[in-house]
UniProtKB/TrEMBL annotation:
Belongs to the YciI family. It comes from the Bacteria. Gene3D superfamilies: Dimeric alpha+beta barrel. This is Uncharacterized conserved protein. Residues 1-105 form the YCII-related domain. It comes from Actinacidiphila guanduensis.
Length: 120
């Protein structure tokens, strides 16, 4: 079963993280990614840009309408997401709990109920 694990944050939170701590945090994240890519359970890990760079795309009368995003006004936004492929929910929970920032930020875990083939 596939799961999406998501971590939320905001620019103020990232700015408050000490600059000298980033290299170790990135190394821990790289080690996590390699560990679970090695087991085949981590399909992808994606860090997103700041919400100030997000855009909303809609269609009105057949034409694309693009505006600055995000859609909801919120203090926190989706900062990164991971696509997992695990035998069970319990295994997905174990991997989410092993994420480097899970000790300070919760990880949201969602089952993927439908998947469209990418090679269509």
């Amino acid at each position: 079963m596939k799961y999406v694990a998501m971590i939320y944050g905001n620019q103020a939170k990232w700015d408050s993280f000490p600059a000298e701590a980033w290299p170790e945090a990135i190394a821990r994240q790289d080690a996590f990614n390699k560990k679970y890519q090695g087991t085949g359970e981590l399909i992808g890990a994606y860090g997103l840009a700041d919400a100030a760079l997000a855009q909303l795309v809609r269609r009105k009368d057949g034409a694309a309408m693009v505006t600055d995003g995000p859609y909801l006004e919120t203090k926190e936004y989706l900062a990164s997401f991971y696509l997992l492929d695990c035998e069970s929910l319990e295994r997905a929970q174990q991997i989410a709990a092993d994420m480097p920032f899970a000790d300070v930020e919760p990880v949201e875990l969602w089952p993927v109920l439908h998947e469209a083939a990418a090679d269509v």
